[in-house]
Description:
It is built from ten helices and no strands. Helix content is about 80%, strand content about 0%. By secondary structure, the protein is an all-alpha fold.
Amino acid sequence: MAVSAETVMAIKTYQNQAEALVKNYFLADPFIPYTSVLGGIFACKVVYDLTQLVSTFYIKAYNGLTKIQRIEWNNRGMSTIHAIFITAMSLYFVFWSDLFSDQQHTGLVTLRSSQLSIVGLGVSIGYFFVDFGMIFLYYPTLGGKEYVIHHSLSTIAVAYSMLSGELQLYTYMCLISEVTTPEINMRWYLDTAGLKRSAAYLINGLAIFLAWLMARILLFLYLFYHIYWHYDQVIQMSLFGCLLTFLVPAVLFTMNLMWFGKIIKGIEESLSKETVTHIGIYQTCSSSFLHCK
């Protein structure tokens, strides 16, 4: 069917108007923080729904769960995707990008930012908003007081860093700790699916231990070291920025140490149970062998 010239012109006009709208508003520097936050919220909704859809058709254990378990299942799928995204962004900015490199002479490292770094933080804030809302809605099923404290500090610090352009390096350093989220979620999935006694469950526990040690203990010690050696630059931020720099990592590190102690205790219990199981099997086999003889 032929399209009239007037129709073609109308389509091009609408297309140009849409491109101008995106360029002048959604992608304009003043609007990037808010656009990225909305994008993060929208992405969370999409991932949540996709997790529900895929799990319904391809994971047998999912349909046997209670309503609140299915909600948590979907929520953990959402948090896993966010963790992968923000961990990749954080590793790039902290270790590979020149944005926060000491070799760059483009101003104080504590005051540097870029459009991409702002977008990354905005998407993360969108996730924290969604997750925060679900925690309050289903409290304390999806997380107790420690999760509220953790998310409150994280949201405030990330939002301030995104809007002010300050302390983005330290914000991304802290966000690398999200690398432990997929392992923790996988542990919950295995437990919920009745695979708590599987070899995968034990391997997952060891993976959590190593990831937690690297990202939430050793990396935070490096963060404190970096703050110490760049103290002259840190104190040139605003008073609130300085407060967040010293307070938030310290509180999160304290919580990380407390959780790390629980992880070690859990691994010790798991290993102890495995040892007892293997000893029991050995004794049973030995008794059977002697009985046969």
